[in-house]
Every structure is written in C-alpha cells, then in structure tokens.
Design brief:
With 745 residues, the protein is α/β, with parallel strands linked by helices. Among the domains are: 160 residues, no CATH class; 214 residues, ABC transporter transmembrane region fold (Up-down Bundle); 74 residues, P-loop containing nucleotide triphosphate hydrolases (Rossmann fold), CATH 3.40.50.300. Helices cover 61% and strands 10% of the residues. The chain contains 28 helices and 15 strands. A 6-stranded mixed sheet has the order 9-12-13-6-14-15. Helix 1 runs antiparallel to helix 17 and helix 12 runs antiparallel to helix 17.
C-alpha cells in the first residue's frame, strides 16, 4: 500500500480540503446534541430562561435577594445591574419592555460576558431559591415548621408582617446561620440543575414585570432550532463536498495508476509477460485498482472523520455526565471483542478473493477464446465443470465473508439499543435525584452513539483494508517490474548509407531462468533487395531468431546489427520503425479494415491502403464486402477467416513501407496459388527492402536469395535452394517430404 502513496501527491490539496471539511462536519455533528439538550432543558423545562441571572428584576425583589448575600456578593451583583426609574433617560424604552416599571423601579442587567454570568449564577440562583422557599414557607405552616431548624421559626411570625423587612433586623450570626442552612439544600446541585430550579422563579418575575414569558420561550426554541437547522445544512454541504473531493481524488489516483500500469505492461518484453498471466494483468488493471479507488474514498471519509467524532463525542459525553462514562467504555469493549473476532475470521478470506477472481477470469478467457476447439472435442461439460469450480470457489468465499458482515450489523444494532436502554435506566435515576437533567441525558445518549459509530467505521476500515492492501501490492508488483529490455542512456542512430541491412554475429540466446541456450552460433547477413528465408523443423528455434531482431528478447551472446549499428545501442522505437512485422498469428483489432491498416501509419492516404491490400491479395474479399474498407472487424478478427486475417496483417505491414519486412510463418494459412501471387507481388513492390521470411513451406522460399536452415538451435545450412539440395541433408529431407522431384527441379 505504501508503495502507491506517491500517487496521492497530486491530490494532496483535495485531501487537505476534505479533512478540513470533515473537521467542520464533525464539529457541527458534535454541536447538535448540545443544542438538542438546550431545547429540552432550557426551552421546554426552563421556559426559555437560560441562566439564574434575571435580565430584569423589580427593586423590591432585589432588596429581598441581597439579604442573603455577603457584602462582597452584593456589591458584585449590583455592579452588574442598572437601576431604572422614572428619572432615567431611557425610561420610556424600558417601560415599553417592562410595563411594571410604571409602578416601581426595576434593576436591568448590563451587557456582561459569559465569564461574569458564570460568577453571578450561583449567587443570584441560590438567593432566588432561598427567597422563594421563604415565601412559600410563610404561606404554608407545615413548611414553615420544617425551616425552624435554621434557628428562625417562621411559623411564629405574626400574620400580615413582612418577613423580609424583619430579616435585616436579626443578629448577623442568626441570619448567616439561616442562610447557610437553606443554602446547604442546594450545595449538591450542579450549575445546570441550579439554573433549572431557579427558572420558574425568574419566569414568575418576568410575568410580574409584564413580559410575555410564552413569547420568550418560543423565541428561544426557534433560535436554537434555527441554529440546529443551520448546522444540519453545514453538515449536508460538508458531506456532499467531501464526497465530491474524495471521489475526484480517488478516481484521479486510480486513473493515474491504471495509466502507469498499462504503460508499464506495454513496455514489457516477452520475459516479463511470463511472470504474469494475461488474466491476472487484466484483474490487476481493473478489479484491483477499483478496490484501491474504493478504499481511498473510505479512508478520506471515514478514517479521518471517525477519530475526530469519536474523541469529540467522548469529551462531550464526559462533560455531560462523568458518572455514566463507564457505559460507553463497556459498549466499546464489547464492540472491540466482536470486531476482533470477525476480523480474525474474515481476514484470510478477504485476502483470498483477488486470487480467486484471477482464476475465474483465466478460465472464462480460455473458454471464450477456445470455444471452437471445445466444441470440436465435445468438452463443453468439462469446461462447464471447470468454470463452475472457479465460480463456486469465489462465490463460497464471498458468501462466507458477506455472512460474517451481515451478522455484524444486527449485533451492532443490539449493542446500540442495549446501550440506549442502559443509559435511560441509569440516567433516569440520576434525573430523579436531581443530579442530571433530561436534556443532558438525551445528549449523552447521542454522544454515546457517535462513539460507537466511530469505532464501527474504523472497524469496517480494518476489515476492508486487508483486501485493498492485497490489491495494492499486486498492482505495485507490476509497477515495480524493471523491464529487461530498455533504451540506452546515450542512443546511437542508424547509418544512412545502408537501409535495411541485418547482420547476425555469433548470436546465442537462452530464455530467462533457463539452464542452456536455445540457439547459439547464429551468424548470417540479410541484405536489402534480397529475400532471406529461415526454415527448419518445429521447435528448431526459427521464431526465436527473428524475435530477436525487434528486441522482443535481447541476445545473451553475440550481437545483431541493423545498418551497422548494434540494435541494443538504439532506441526501441527507432529500431521498430524500420521493421514491418507480420506475426505467426495475424492479430487484428476491433474496428474497421481501414483502422487496422492505419495502425501501421495513421497518415497513410487511401491510395496507399488500396495498394497494400492489392499486394497482400486481399483486394477480392475487401471489395466484395458491402462496406469495403469500412467493414467492421471484431476483436481478434474472429469474423474473418484465417487466410483473410493473415492477408490483412500483411497489408498492414505493407502500409508502413519499412526497409525491413519480417514474416513469421505468415503465409501458412494461404493456399499455394495465393501464396505464389503474394510472393510475386511482394518481390515487385518491395524489391529494395530486406525480406526475412520464416516458414516451413519449401515452395514459399525456393526463389529466395538466401535460405538459412536451422536445426536444434544451430545453422546447419546456408545458401540457395539448389545449393542446399546438394550440400544440406536437413534441407533435402524437408524439401523431399513436401515436393515432388519435378517441383524440386
């Protein structure tokens, strides 16, 4: 996987932007439960009252509150309020807002920051609750008696007497004892619980001031709800943007890798092709790269997002209720055990999938390519069984992995639902004990789910990554192959005095990893304007010899010179530009006859194409087709006969008009009449070029200026037909086995 990291560099900016957007998305997602908690706690339970510091309070009520404050607290509170009465400059403005101002002066809260509000909250909140409890106790004798433990029996206060006018007259120690006794009741309360307890008192004060409390509550819910909608919109936009950027980055990386793999494979010699099967290379270029593309998208969208959301959710959950964090730890522990179990079982199967896909592609490709042979030998059932075996192996492996993954999801749902029930059960007890608010419990539940989901996302990555890493390794293996045939660092150019002179000097060759040479001591010269034929029995090394000329393989001994220059000292492209090659199996590409001919020279005019067709003896069947040069050719040329395919392959080489022609047994599918006509036309039209023909037909090469006879990798004869008939036994045996005495003359 690390070997392919360089392909991410061009898309680093997209990835960085995606990570930034994921961070923004995570922050928005983490803020939503908090706002939901505020709507429940503040908007619904507290009627829109956010804290225990009133925005405004009647002066008579403020006088009651300061009784239960220390002098320092009193000074702090009064410093943050402004007393508004009929003589104030903005009296009319405040009168409209607080109608009770007409009857008495009102303390209005100044603009203070959150830190100052946090300082005032416990002071004003406890004072408000003490005043509220005393007012209730005065009206209820039972509650008044309950407060007698404070050292002041409220039940003995004469009816109609203002208790708050009497309290300042009490001895300071008795008043302090009473305040401390009542305050102890609130000491265990958190700030949020204190705010919630003080909210009804503040709401009642707002109503006494003439403020519409219901409107205040509605405004708060709409404001927080609007923020939640805005955050949701941010989340949606971030998700869309991250999806777009990650897809572009992943698609770009896969495109670049696929391009480089194709370019690398195009540069392979036959030695490199022996390391990888065609089916495997196709799988690596398609399915494996698709796996890499998918995992890049998932890494960007999950691997970066999951830790942010997981850590953030844990921090928020601890802030909401530290005492319940053990529930999250328990759920994560169970989750990890399940994930590790699944991971251990599924990982080997994930790694095996790609090799099974290779096998299925191989069997499918062989069956489709050899369909005629399969039918000829009535082995359809055998091939069907072979395909069924490969297909069943892949299916069983995939089904096993999918069953494991399917089981994982219900287990995850069970864990999450069990987690919700446990949080509600534990949280309900804490709510009943005034240790937790309902909204905070609901927010804690959502944060717990976010933690579980973050671990689930990471676990999915750990399961998918092994398969992607196998695919990445397979692709990297192709890219890491160093071709054995490369261009020289300081290439030479061909001599312009000669054009098409090919010379073998004591050439030897052995295949990679072979123990001995397959050809050795090969020396001959093929001159321009002459035909050099190579003949020999099957497996003697004929095709190997001519495959060395275009550098499909490099010689292991000796040298091959073209126009006086060693072919290893020039660029491959420059060498192959001088060669018109017709392989043993005429290969046509999907398209038209014209597009196949132009494969040799895109700029060739129509007259050149027609001339090449005429020389190759393909004019008759090309002209008889309805579309002529525009006749469609299927992949591999399967819709034309073997002879037609060979003639079109020859015509393609002729379009190139090179100084060297190589025919690797390219006339074998032609009848003798067509063969003879083709050779005459070639001699007439390409007389100045070097013609090298590999064949097993003596009749094809009887008129050649030079015939090379190869047997078991060595040259056993060299000369014309008549010379070889006299002094080469191997050639004589081949010739007499094919031709009559009259034909040999």
């Amino acid at each position: 996987m690390f070997r392919l990291f360089k392909y991410l560099k061009p898309y680093a900016l997209l990835i960085v932007i995606s990570i930034g957007l994921l961070f923004a998305q995570a922050m928005a997602d983490l803020a939503l439960p908090n706002y939901m908690s505020d709507i429940v706690n503040v908007g619904i339970q507290q009627g829109g009252v956010e804290n225990a510091v009133p925005m405004a309070i009647r002066s008579s009520e403020m006088d009651k509150l300061v009784v239960f404050m220390t002098s320092e607290e009193k000074n702090m509170v009064l410093a943050d309020y402004t007393l508004v009465d009929s003589s104030s400059v903005d009296f009319e403005t405040y009168l409209e807002k607080y109608p009770a101002l007409a009857a008495e002066s009102v303390y209005v809260l100044n603009k203070i920051d959150e830190a100052e509000t946090a300082k005032l909250n416990p002071i004003t909140g406890k004072s408000l609750l003490v005043v509220s409890m005393i007012e209730v106790a005065v009206k209820d004798p039972a509650k008044a008696a309950a407060m007698s433990s404070s050292g002041f029996d409220l039940s003995k206060i004469p009816a109609g007497m203002d208790i708050f006018a009497l309290l300042p007259q009490l001895p300071a120690d008795q008043l302090a004892q009473m305040t401390d006794s009542v305050s102890e009741k609130f000491s265990a309360m958190t700030d949020s619980m204190l705010n919630q307890s003080a909210a009804p008192v503040i709401r009642a004060e707002y109503e006494a001031l003439g403020v519409d409390a219901n409107k205040l509550q509605t405004a708060y819910i709409l404001r927080i709800g609007g923020l939640m909608l805005l955050l949701t919109l941010v989340t949606v936009l971030c998700t869309i943007a991250v999806g777009l950027f990650s897809a572009r980055a992943a698609a770009g990386v896969s495109r670049d890798i696929r391009r480089d793999v194709f370019a690398k494979v195009e540069g392979f010699s036959k030695a490199e092709f022996e390391k990888f099967s065609t089916a495997s290379l196709i799988t690596r270029s398609t399915n494996d790269i698709t796996q890499i593309q998918m995992v890049i998208i998932m890494i960007i969208r999950m691997v970066f997002y999951a830790p942010i959301i997981g850590v953030g959710a844990v921090i928020h959950a601890v802030n909401k209720s530290p005492s319940m964090t053990w529930i999250i730890a328990l759920a994560v522990g169970i989750l990890l055990v399940i994930i590790l179990t699944v991971f251990t079982i599924a990982l080997p199967r994930f790694k095996k999938i790609q090799s099974l896909i290779d096998r299925l592609n191989l069997v499918t490709r062989e069956s489709l390519s050899g369909i005629m042979v399969i039918r000829a030998f009535n082995t359809q059932q055998f091939e069907a069984d072979r395909f069924d075996k490969a297909n069943t192996d892949l299916t069983d492996n995939s089904l096993f992995v999918n069953r494991i993954m399917v089981i994982l999801m219900p287990i995850m749902m069970l864990i999450m639902n069990g987690l919700s029930v446990l949080i509600i059960w534990v949280g309900a007890h804490q709510v009943a004990n005034s240790a937790l608010q309902v909204g905070d419990m609901m927010a804690f539940m959502q944060y717990a789910m976010q933690v579980v989901f973050s671990f689930l996302m990471l676990s999915m990555m750990f399961i998918i990554l092994p398969r992607a890493s196998v695919s990445a390794a397979r692709v990297a293996d192709v890219l890491a192959v160093e071709p054995t045939i490369v261009d020289p660092k300081e290439p030479k150019t061909f001599d312009t005095k000669t054009n098409g002179l090919v010379e073998f000097r004591d050439v030897s060759f052995r295949y990679p990893n072979a123990e001995e040479d397959v050809i050795y001591g090969i020396s001959f010269t093929a001159k321009p304007g002459e035909t050099t034929a190579i003949i020999g029995s099957t497996g003697s090394g004929k095709s190997t010899v001519i495959n060395l000329i275009p550098r499909f393989f490099d010689v292991t001994g000796g040298s091959i010179l073209v126009d006086g220059v060693d072919i290893r000292e020039v660029r491959q492209s420059e060498l192959r530009e001088k060669i018109g090659y017709v392989p043993q199996r005429g290969m046509l590409f999907s398209g038209t006859i014209e597009s196949n001919l132009r494969y040799a020279d895109e700029s060739a005019d129509i007259d050149t194409l027609k001339k090449a067709i005429s020389i190759a003896q393909a004019e008759e069947f090309v002209n008889t087709t309805e579309d002529g040069l525009q006749t469609e050719i299927s992949q591999g040329g399967t819709n034309v006969s073997g002879g037609q395919k060979q003639r079109l392959a020859i015509a393609r080489a002729l379009v190139k008009q090179p100084p060297i022609y190589i025919f690797d047994d390219a006339l074998s599918a032609l009848d003798f009449k067509t063969d003879s006509a083709l050779r005459r036309a070639l001699k007439k039209e390409t007389g100045k070029s070097t013609m090298i023909i590999v064949t097993q037909r003596v009749s094809t090469i009887k008129t050649a200026e030079q015939i090379i006879v190869i047997d078991e990798g060595k040259i056993v004869g060299k000369g014309t037909h008549q010379q070889l008939m006299k002094n080469c036994e191997t050639y004589r045996e081949i010739a007499t086995s094919q031709l009559s005495k009259e034909e040999l003359a």
